[in-house]
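Hi R.,

Here's the chain you asked about this morning:
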Amino acid sequence: MSRSQALLLFLVLVVGGGLAIGYVTLPGEWYASLIKPSFNPPNWVFAPVWTVLYVLIAIAGWRVWDHELTAPQQFWWGQLVLNFLWSPIFFGLQQMGLALVVIVLLLLAIIGFIKVTWKSEQVSALLFLPYLLWVAFATLLNASLWMLNAG
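And the predicted structure, written out as tokens:
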């Protein structure tokens, strides 16, 4: 497989997978009925932000794959699984507490990825910084929604 074919495969997997999961688990009546914190963004913000982040995630994954970096690849695959699990748990199962556990683990996997790539593949680490910031915000949002709507 050529490098460009591999990059395309990573983009299709991550962007396509993320958008497909987002489409299947669109926020519905349940989410609309939740009490939201004051900092909750409007729904239209999520799709463009995640699309950009998924492109960055795919490029970072391709780079660590291309450089044959084992530990970063393990963190990368781990974060992708956790990322793809969150929406079905939060929106599909409507389990905000379990989703909070998943997103905290996702945050830790992102931090782990950045840490293990910082010296060996700094471009990939830098590509994950916006992702880290967004998931930290999403973790706060998930926790706030859970606390405001528990019981």
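Residues 70-92 form the longest helix (23 residues).

Let me know if you need anything else.
M.
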